[in-house]
Structures are given as C-alpha cells and as structure tokens.
Write a structure and sequence with these properties.
CATH class: Alpha Beta
Number of domains: 1
Order of helices and strands: EHHEEHEHHEHHEHEHHEHH
CATH superfamily: Metal-dependent hydrolases
Helix content: 40-55%
Distance between the termini: 14 Å
Radius of gyration: 17 Å
Strand content: 5-15%
Structural class: alpha/beta
Bound molecules: zinc ion
CATH architecture: Alpha-Beta Barrel
Oligomer: single chain
Length: 270
C-alpha cells in the first residue's frame, strides 16, 4: 500500500531534534527518506514553520509543503503584507496549501483579518490546514484551537477546503460534529501519538477506552473520504503510527485514508 504522510514538520531545531530521538528517529532528511522508503511512504506534506521567506522553504522532491503562518510571523495587523509573501509561495508547485496556528497565535480563524489568506486559497484552489486541539506549549490558548472554530470559517468560506489538523483531539465529538456538518472540512489524524511505543498491542490494551471512543465517533461520521493519514513527524514513530491508523480505520477504507484523500485534497498529482 502506498502512503502519503499528510502532516509533518521539517525543521532543524533543537526541539525537533529532541522529539525525533524520543520517537526512535533522527531529525534529518536522509533518515526520513530512508524510513519513508521502508514503509512505502511516497510523499510527505510539511506544515510550514520559520516564517515566510522563500529561501527558508526549500524541500527535497519527496516533500510538498503548506506555507505556515506560525507565531514567528503571523500578525493580524500585517496580514496584507504577509499575503503578498503567501501568494509567492502558493505560486510554487510544491506549495500545496496554507497552514494556520490559531491556538499559538491567539486569533479566531474566522476573524476578518484572515480574509486575505482565504482569498488566496480560493484563487489558487489550495486548502487551508488549521491546527486544532491540544497545543505543545502552555502559553497557547485552547479557545482558538477548539475544532468548533472551523464551523464558522467553513460557513463563511464555502469554497475553501479546510483540513482540521489532529481532528481536534481530544475534542473528538465536537470535531466530528463540525466535519459532519461542513462538507468542505476534512481532517488529518496526525499528532495523536508521541514518542516511540515498544508494544502496540500493549498500547491498545492500555488505551482501550480512548481508542474505542475514537473508533466509535469515526464510525458515527462514517465518511472515510475526508480523513487523511498524517504523523506530525518527528513527534511520533512512523511504524507505530501506521499500525495505529490501520487499527482505527476499517481495512476497506485504508487506501483512501492512507493515500487517496491526501492526494486529492492537496492535489499532489501522484
Ligand atoms: Zn503539526
């Protein structure tokens, strides 16, 4: 089975190097490429960090990226100038979307200041991925990263394809409500695991209630055309993650969730 990893980070920073070690990996392109080859992962989609300079966003050919408005660069009052640079990214073939980090940057994604980015997403027909759910830092604010914020954005911008990153975890019920109601919202399943898990059967036994809850609400949604495999590399171990997603998604939907949906939504042309 071919796989697309629809959510990774690709930064050489001490924080990312450290979490890669905890996941049993090395945060280098060579290592990532070799792990991808070992698991038949044919493409990764980088969620951008480190600002908007074009020169900061050079990626090997097995990676595409979403231009990221992270806390190092997003300022609502500078959205017009930033949109100029975001457009330069969107004109690149390997830039397949825009990534927003509202919990970290303290803004509601339906705020009018975000308008210029949605206009560009519509113009270039590229999706807007949004971090939802828990955050990695405590100075982030969860009211901005709650999956419910996608509802108003999806209604205001029906032509924009949204990707709810991390499926709002742990607000899974709220996330499913938003995805079920809004056909222009998909979700990636990244960022649920972290570190390296020695025994997945043990993990499934220990987290039995949570895993069943997750599966229950995915079954309730019953729409496997809008769920994307993703890891949040280098946060999690790649072999663990494939096993995890294969466990929570019924086997007849694996091709869609592991490959087809990301290929279509990010228009990867694979
Ligand atoms: Zn991420």
């Amino acid at each position: 089975m071919k796989i697309i990893d629809a959510h990774i980070h690709f930064c050489r920073e001490p924080y990312f190097d450290q979490i890669a070690e905890l996941a049993g990996h090395k945060n280098t392109s060579e290592h990532l490429k070799s792990r991808y080859a070992a698991h038949n992962i044919v493409q990764g989609v980088v969620m951008g960090n480190r600002g908007l300079q074009l020169s900061e966003h050079q990626y090997p050919d097995y990676l595409s990226y979403c231009v990221g408005l992270d806390s190092t660069c997003f300022k609502a009052e500078e959205a017009v100038q930033q949109a100029y640079w975001v457009e330069k990214h969107l004109q690149r073939k390997n830039c397949v979307g825009i990534k927003l980090y509202p919990g970290y940057n303290h803004f509601y994604i339906y705020d009018p200041s975000v308008d210029p980015f949605y206009q560009l997403a519509m113009q270039y027909k590229k999706p807007v991925a949004v971090h939802t759910g828990l955050t990695a830092t405590s100075n982030a604010l969860l009211k901005y990263s709650h999956p419910m914020v996608l509802d108003e954005a999806a209604v205001r911008y029906p032509q924009v394809q949204f990707v709810m990153c991390h499926i709002g975890n742990p607000w899974l019920v709220d996330a499913i409500a938003v995805i079920g109601k809004n056909k222009n919202v998909a979700a990636d399943l990244s960022g649920i695991l972290e570190g390296r898990i020695d025994s997945m059967p043990d993990f499934f036994a220990r987290k039995h209630g949570y895993i069943n809850f997750f599966k229950t609400w995915l079954e309730y949604l019953d729409d496997y055309d809008r769920l994307l495999y993703g890891t949040d590399w280098p946060l999690a171990n790649i072999a663990n993650y494939i096993e995890f997603v294969a466990h929570i998604i019924p086997e007849r939907h694996h091709d869609k969730v592991f490959f087809d949906n990301a290929n279509r939504i990010y228009d990867l042309g694979l």
